Amino acid sequence: MPIRVNLDIMLVQRKMKSKHLAEVIGITTANLSILKSGKAKAIRFTTLEAICKALECQPADILEYVAD
Question: Which of 3, 8, 16, 34 is the one with CA 20 to 30 A from 25?
Answer without folding.
Answer: 3
